[in-house]
Design a protein that fits this description.
The chain contains 17 helices and twelve strands. It is α+β, with helices and mostly antiparallel strands. It has helices spanning about 50-55, 60-65, 70-75, 145-160, 195-205, 210-225, 235-255, 305-325, 330-340, 340-360, 365-380, 385-395, 400-405, 415-430, 435-445, 450-465, 470-475; strands at about 35, 45-50, 85-90, 90-95, 95-100, 105-115, 120-125, 140, 165-175, 180-190, 255-260, 280. It folds into three domains: about 5-195, no CATH class; about 200-280 and about 295-350, no CATH class; about 360-445, no CATH class. The strands form four sheets. Strands 2, 6, 7, 8, 9 and 10 form a six-stranded antiparallel β-sheet that branches. A two-stranded antiparallel sheet has the order 1-3. A two-stranded antiparallel ribbon has the order 4-5. The relative contact order is 0.11. Bound molecules: adenosine monophosphate and magnesium ion. Adenosine monophosphate (AMP) binds near residues 102, 140, 261, 266 and 505.
Length: about 500
């Protein structure tokens, strides 16, 4: 088989390609990295939605993808003639417990495409049938979780947060059984790659150092090519993965996103948000907020996410030990030094982002304290996360906006001291208030995929076959920082009877 070196700097597609001309760098890694198999066909696929903009960015002709032939591919009923579809092997720590074999139990990697920017991207079908890694499951996905992943991942992309993308969603015409019979669906997902912390763990658990090295080399070529030039390329790789992950989690913390299942198999080596299960955007801020029905101990609570990311990366660093140095003690020192950098990197990204949210452009020593004091006050007063920050944008121009901002707090006067300190700090900065307001609005979204809206969309689709609310919500979330007065309802916090207490992965 030809060896192809994957790279992020390949020539971009200039001509329109179709889903039948994919690339297969991962499928050319050693056989023990995956299982070769085709998706299991479905009886009556129907297109719910094609992401035309993304399709074009990938170099596809959206018109061709939407034809019956295109639909057959998106549903897994047809694979490219010389295609090399695979299910990837991986392991992972699930809620702290190591499972040596997980793998794509219901996802099939169709192949890769070099997009218009020259970046290599995976095309995967999630819900495409059983695989050798399926264990107890049915290999399928239900419509609700597919719509949820479509909405939230596209919302994240619009917010500028690295994420896997949704290329298309189809219904299968088949029933899947969860607690009740549900319509089946398949998500065509796009990722920089689907390599996870758990992919390295899979080989580490088997003592397969050759595989770890091959995987690391693949990751360097594909995601971190600059590491090649470092004196210790694997240490440089580890540092880069840690830096990207720290930056990613900082972005989550700045928009109130709770991943919900930060198992090591759900952490992407490329630094993208991946595997949207029981995830949630917080309404009311609280550091201990947990929505996931399966996270009974609150391990993946909002405020725990940076610590958990570091824990996961420590598990990754352990798998790197044989690569970091010949001598074990030296390798451990390298790993510890890399992991030790996580919080500094996280704080830098978080502080930079938080300053933007508060309209501060020049870094001051007390900025993180100012930010934390606001969060503490929000937590004590059940303030809505997104609306509080959006309210601050107007409050920067005049104190007229203070009334609606204060009304978000159980005790409106609780915020007064903080606002005074903030205004004092803004006065020190100088600058034009209107320009600041514009900049702040770009850092403080008005529209987030609130749980009650997502539930509303899913319920209309699953119970009534009505996909219009899905389309509307997607359109609103594609411009999260704009006012869109005609969709004011979608900006509101849930009324008490609308509050969603728990989210389910529904797998
Ligand atoms: P997740 O919780 O979605 O990250 O999945 C954890 C593991 O369970 C992965 O190995 C999945 O492939 C597998 N899995 C989840 N749902 C199913 C399903 N319906 N059928 C087969 N495998 C599944
Ligand atoms: Mg997963």
């Amino acid at each position: 088989m030809p060896t192809r070196i994957p790279g992020t700097v390949a020539a971009p597609q200039t001509e329109v390609v179709d889903l039948l001309t994919l690339d297969y760098s991962y499928a050319h890694l050693p056989d023990r990295f995956f299982a070769r198999l085709e998706p299991t066909p479905v009886v009556a696929p129907r297109l719910i939605r094609l992401n035309e903009k993304l399709a074009r960015q990938l170099g596809f002709d959206p018109g061709a993808l939407a034809t019956p032939d295109g639909l057959e591919i998106l549903a897994g009923n047809r694979v490219p003639e010389n295609g090399e579809p695979i299910a990837m092997a991986y392991a992972g720590h699930q809620f702290g417990n190591f499972v040596p074999q997980l793998g794509d139990g219901r996802a099939i990697l169709l192949g890769e495409i070099i997009d218009r920017d020259g970046a290599r991207r995976d095309i995967q079908l999630k819900g495409a049938g059983r695989t050798p890694y399926t264990r107890g499951g049915d290999g399928r996905a239900a419509l609700g979780p597919v719509l949820r992943e479509y909405i939230v991942s596209e919302a994240m992309a619009a917010l500028g947060i690295p994420t896997t993308r949704a290329l298309a969603a189809v219904t299968t015409g088949e029933t899947v059984w969860r607690e009740t019979p549900l319509p089946g669906a398949i998500l065509a997902r796009v990722a920089s790659s689907h390599i996870r912390v758990g992919t390295f763990q899979f080989f580490a658990a088997r003592g397969d150092v050759d595989a770890i090295r091959s995987l690391a080399d693949h990751v360097i070529g594909r995601h971190y090519p600059q590491s090649v030039d470092a004196a210790n390329r694997y240490r440089a790789l580890l540092d880069s993965i840690i830096a990207r992950q720290a930056g990613l989690v900082a972005k989550w913390m700045l928009v109130g996103f709770i991943h919900g299942v930060m198992n090591t198999d759900n952490m992407s080596i490329a630094g993208e948000t991946i595997d949207y299960g029981p995830c949630a955007f917080m309404d009311v801020y609280h550091p201990a907020a947990v929505y996931s029905s399966i996270d009974t101990m609150g391990r993946y609570a909002f405020g725990n996410q940076p610590r958990i990311a570091q824990w996961n990366l420590a598990r990754l660093a352990e798998t790197f030990l044989p690569l970091l140095a010949d001598d074990e003690d030296a390798a451990v020192k390298e790993a510890q030094a890399a992991i030790g950098m996580f919080f500094a990197r996280f704080e830098t990204a978080y502080a930079t982002g938080f300053r933007r949210k508060l309209g501060l452009f020049q870094p001051h020593a007390g900025d993180l304290t100012l930010a934390q004091d606001l969060l503490d006050c929000m937590g004590r007063n059940s303030a809505d996360f997104a609306l509080t920050f959006r309210g601050l944008c107007d409050a920067t121009v005049s104190s007229e906006g203070d009334v609606s901002l204060r009304s978000l707090f159980d005790d409106p006067s609780a915020l007064d001291d903080w606002v005074e300190r903030w205004r004092h700090r803004l006065a020190e900065e100088g600058g034009d208030a209107n320009a600041r307001r514009v900049a702040m609005r770009a850092a403080n979204p008005l529209f987030i995929p609130r749980n009650h809206l997502v539930e509303e969309v899913i319920s209309a689709a699953v119970n009534n076959g009505d996909f219009r609310p899905f389309e509307t919500l997607l359109a609103v979330l594609s411009a999260p920082h704009e006012d869109q007065p005609e969709f004011g309802r979608h900006a509101l916090a849930p009324r008490p009877e609308q509050i969603v207490q728990q989210t389910f992965c529904g797998t």
